[in-house]
Amino acid sequence: MNPFRTAGDLAHLTSKCILIWSIHRNRSAEGISLPTQAMYTLVFIMRYIDLSFGWVSLYNFGMKVIYIASAVYVLILMSFLYPRTPESPMAWRAATMSVVLSAIWGLVFNYYFSVLEILWSSSIFLESICIIPQLILIHQTTIPTVITSHYVLALCSYRLLHIFGWGWRYHFDHVLDPIAVLCGLVQTAVYADLAWVYYTRQRVTLRGGLVVDSEEYEKGRLADEKDDRGWTSLEATRMGRNDEEAALGGIILPPHGDPDA
Fold first, then answer.
1. DSSP structure string for 136-173
2. What's the pLDDT tens digit per position in 144-159?
3. Which of 27, 95, 121, 166 has an alpha carbon 20 to 30 Å from 211's alpha carbon atom?
4. What is the pTM of this model?
5. Rounded (10°) angle between helices 34-47 and 115-129
């Protein structure tokens, strides 16, 4: 067994768990790109469509089921249960172009011209660029998001570990997949950009659990300013319990005394 590939799989799974936990904890999907998560779901479905008739091992079967189930669950949370950030037309255009181009590339670049092989190749191409709408959203938003440094770290670790896994496989099995390697390098570069953008727009957690943009924190506007009732913005936000006062960027805040606060 390739230890780096296994570690990469677990890092990827960890990123999904962190994302789901963060959405539930904040009771919001603010700052998470719906097109990106929809494309992740499409990637897993296309890649693991052989789930019902291609048995490799219990580990392989279990990971495929978990990947698909977790991706669909995130879509359900974002679409029906929690508020999310509206996507810009640019993000939706990028998602549409990503799907179309990946389908074309899958038809042109594959190892065997069969349905399963074309779907697999298309999924590899799509995964390498499906984070682009998320990048667009992070660039355009100045409000708090539920994306955490742990989520970004897990994503980047997943990609880095798979790169080491390619080296392990080439050294011991003398096998190198050009499509997977090329797309993996592209995906690594995109993830590095995501990590850099997140770092430069780092979120800060204030006492009481409120998460704000670091720029706002440095200005002290949220923490220090008081309204005509003598409340700071933080206090007013936690006490208001309406769309303007109880949700800063869609993140619903529990009232004082809430055991989850």
1. HHHHH--S--S--HHHHHHHHHHHHHHHHHHHHHHHHH
2. 567 777 888 888 889 8
3. 95
4. 0.74
5. 150
Average pLDDT of the residues in 209-213:
47
Which residues make beta-bridge pairs with 37?
none
Q: In the numeric block, which tokens belong to residue 240? A: 């208001």
Nearest-angstrom CA–CA distance, 134 and 87: 9
Top pLDDT among 38 and 206 is at 38
Q: How far apart are CA 88 and CA 79, in angstroms?
A: 16
Better-scored residue on pLDDT, 87 or 39? 39
Please count the CA atoms within 13 angstroms of the CA of 54 that sit on its side-chain side: 9
Would you state the structure tokens that stand for residue 100, as one six-digit string? Answer: 């179309």
Are 31 and 137 a contacting pair, CB within 8 Å? yes
**What is the distance between the alpha carbons of residues 21 and 113, in angstroms, rounded to a whole number?**
40
User: What pLDDT, on a 0 to 100 scale, did the predictor assign at position 76?
Assistant: 94
CB 227 within 8 A of CB 235: no
User: Which residue type is seen at 261?
Assistant: A
Give me the half-sphere count of Cα atoms (radius 13 Å) on the Cβ side of residue 19.
27
CA 114, CA 18: separation in Å to the nearest integer?
36
- Per the model's pLDDT, the better-predicted residue between 200 and 160 turns out to be 160
Residue 195 has which token pair? 């990590």
Task: Name the residue among 129, 152, 165, 147 with its Cα closest to residue 249.
Answer: 147
